[in-house]
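Note to self: keep these together.
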Amino acid sequence: MDGVSPLHDACLGGHATCAKFLLENGANVTAVTINGVTPLFNTCCSGSAACLHLLLEYGPAHHPAHLLASPLHQAVKRGADVHSGKAEESPLHAAAQRPSVRLVELLLEYGANVQSKSSEGRKPVELAVPRSPVERALQLREGNNVL
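Structure:
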């Protein structure tokens, strides 16, 4: 089997209600496919803050919601790996393709490598929408001057 769980699929689709149902019924929040894909990576692909919050709420170390700094901060504190994604594509590669600058900035804050290359040899900045806020944020982290 490939190890893709219903939770992986729910997070990839950004289906928070489905993810919540699965988590309430014992889905493994730390499940990893044979390709090394986690529900966290799929959540970054979908850009779903609601799914990310659920993964943290049902994660191994539960903390009351009012004590969470942010979902991504807590994911990293609980051992989420900002470098581990799908094959050679990192969560930053996935987030670069979404419109969330905040998600990209948090991944970088927690050590995501802006210079990392996918299996196709592409850096996250090369996957961002041209002239988008995400592309500008990645260019700034690379040290490129952006007007």
